[in-house]
Design brief:
It is a single chain. With 154 residues, this protein is α+β, with helices and mostly antiparallel strands. The protein has a single domain, classed as RutC-like (60s Ribosomal Protein L30, Chain: A). The protein has 3 helices and 7 strands, in the order αββββαβαββ. The strands form 2 sheets. Strands 1-2-7-5-6 form a 5-stranded mixed beta sheet. Helix 2 crosses helix 3. It is globular, with a radius of gyration of 15 Å. 39% of the residues are buried.
């Protein structure tokens, strides 16, 4: 029987995909005691990478949607780190969001809200977190957003 997190994700129409494999020489997550550090997850849709540069060829709403996909991948990695039991999540501790944007673009926080809003909607108070949202001149593969996360587990 699914727990409250899996039930809420299902209510939102979200099925966590298999955790994405690393794209280079690193591990997707590290568990240190009750803390899980999840490597940066890039914006990925059902048809592949979500590409774009905010302030050039992508607007805030599309960027926020891309950030939401990063949050879903973060939860997939977290579930893998917990041996398949995402209900071990105590709380989201911190996100760091990187937004592929022009020098003039200043709405990085609004873009990363796509991830933050989703985590609070899916996890309630467990999803509330500290956060940074920064600009990047470019990101791997030309993706729009990359987000890394720190989580506390039981």
């Amino acid at each position: 029987m699914p727990g409250p997190i899996e039930t809420r994700l299902a209510e939102l129409g979200v099925t966590l995909p298999d955790a994405p494999a690393p794209a280079a020489n690193y591990v997707p997550y590290v568990v240190a005691g009750d803390i899980v550090y999840v490597s940066g997850q890039v914006s990925m849709g059902p048809d592949g990478f979500i590409l774009g540069k905010l302030g050039a060829d992508m607007d805030v709403a599309a960027g926020a949607a891309a950030a939401r996909t990063c949050a879903i991948s973060l939860l997939s990695q977290l579930k893998a780190a917990c041996g398949g039991d995402i209900e071990r999540l105590v709380r989201v501790v911190k996100l760091t969001g990187f937004v592929n944007s022009t020098a003039e673009f200043g709405d990085q926080p609004k873009v990363v809200n796509g991830a933050s809003d989703f985590l609070v909607e899916a996890l309630g108070d467990k999803g509330r977190h500290a956060r940074s949202a920064v600009s990047a001149a470019s990101l791997p593969f030309g993706v729009a957003v990359e987000i890394e996360g720190i989580f506390q587990i039981a």
